[in-house]
TrEMBL record:
This protein's record includes keyword Oxidoreductase: yes
Keyword check for Flavoprotein: yes
NCBIfam families according to UniProt: F420_MSMEG_2906
Domain of life: Bacteria
Keywords per UniProt: Flavoprotein, FMN, Monooxygenase, Oxidoreductase
Organism: Kribbella yunnanensis
Name of the protein in question: LLM class F420-dependent oxidoreductase
CDD domains found in the cross-reference section: Tetrahydromethanopterin_reductase
InterPro entries recorded: F420_MSMEG2906, Luciferase-like_dom, Luciferase-like_sf, SsuD_RutA_monooxygenase
Length: 271
C-alpha cells in the first residue's frame, strides 16, 4: 500500500481476506456440511450462508435450509473459519432475539461469528412466511431501529458476547444504507464493478466524515460471485476492497474458483 492509498483509502490497510458464500439451496445438508469443512481446509477466511426460505435460482421449490440453525451447526463443525449470514434479513426476527441468537452462536463458535445483516428484499419469503413486505424505505427504517436495539441487548446479556461481534451490513443505498454502515458496521458488503464500488466507498467515506468516524475502521467487502481473481481481483483491490466473497450453489459446490482466490490472497498478502 502506498502513502497515497493510506491517506485516500485508509481501509486499504486491511489484509486481503476471502469469504465463501455456500448458498444453502438444491443440496442435502450433508453436502453443505462437507462443503464448509472443505472450504475451511482450503483456507477460506469466512464461510457465509444466506437468510432466505426458498432458492433464489434454479427450481423455485427446490431443496433449501434455514440460516441461523445452520450457523449454529457450522459453529460446531468448524474450528478456525469465521461464520455468518450474507446477510440476515432484519424483518424475520425480533431485534433482541436476533442479538441473543448471535451471542449464542458467538459462544458456540468461540468468538468466530460475524453478524451480517440487511433490510430484506425477497418478497416470496415475506409472503409465504407471513411477514409484511411493506416498502424498501420502510424496511430500511426498520433496520435503522433494530441496530441500536441489537447493540443494547448485547450489553445486557449474561454472559456477554465473547468479543465485540463484528457487524457486516450489506447493500448499496447511498442515502440510508451507507449511512447505517457508517453508524454501526465494521464491514460493508457491496456489489458491482470497480468503478461502482469506488463510488460507493466515496459515499460511505462522506457519511463517516459527517458523523466523525474514521472510514478506515470499516473493512470493504465485494461479492465476486464465480468470477476469477484474474478477471476482477486487481481492479477491486485498487479501489480498496479487501474482503472478496466467492459464491457457489448446490447440489455440486464447485470449489475450484475458491482455491484460485485463496492462492491469490496469499500472493497479494505476501504469504
Amino acid at each position: 500500500m502506498t502513502d497515497s492509498e493510506s491517506t485516500e483509502r485508509p481501509y486499504a490497510a486491511y489484509p486481503v481476506r476471502i469469504g465463501f458464500q455456500i448458498q444453502p439451496q438444491h443440496a442435502e445438508y450433508a453436502d453443505i456440511r462437507r462443503t464448509v469443512a472443505q472450504a475451511e481446509e482450503i483456507g477460506v477466511d469466512i464461510a457465509f450462508n444466506w437468510d432466505h426460505f426458498y432458492p433464489l435460482s434454479g427450481e423455485p421449490d427446490g431443496l433449501h435450509f434455514e440460516c441461523w440453525t445452520m450457523l449454529a451447526a457450522w459453529a460446531e463443525a468448524t474450528e478456525r473459519v469465521e461464520i455468518g449470514a450474507l446477510v440476515t434479513c432484519n424483518s424475520y426476527r425480533n431485534a433482541d432475539l436476533l442479538a441473543d441468537m448471535a451471542r449464542t452462536v458467538d459462544h458456540i463458535s468461540d468468538g468466530r461469528l460475524i453478524l451480517g445483516i440487511g433490510s430484506g428484499w425477497f418478497e416470496r419469503d415475506y409472503d409465504e412466511y407471513g411477514y409484511e413486505f411493506g416498502t424498501a424505505g420502510g424496511r430500511l427504517n426498520a433496520l435503522g431501529e433494530a441496530l441500536p436495539r441489537i447493540e443494547a441487548r448485547w450489553a445486557k446479556l449474561n454472559p456477554k458476547p465473547t468479543r465485540d461481534i463484528p457487524v457486516l451490513i450489506g447493500g448499496g443505498g447511498e442515502k440510508k444504507t451507507l449511512k447505517l454502515v457508517a453508524q454501526h458496521a465494521n464491514i460493508w458488503h457491496g456489489f458491482g464493478d470497480a468503478e461502482t464500488i469506488a463510488h460507493k466507498h466515496a459515499v460511505l467515506d462522506e457519511h463517516c466524515k459527517t458523523i466523525g468516524r474514521d472510514p478506515g475502521e470499516i473493512e470493504r467487502s465485494t461479492a465476486v460471485g464465480d468470477k476469477s481473481p484474474d478477471a476482477v481481483g486487481k481492479s477491486l483491490l485498487d479501489v480498496g476492497t479487501r474482503l472478496f466473497t466467492v459464491s457457489a450453489s448446490g447440489p455440486d459446490y464447485d470449489l475450484g474458483q475458491l482455491r484460485d482466490w485463496v492462492a491469490w490472497r496469499d500472493e497479494v498478502n505476501g504469504k
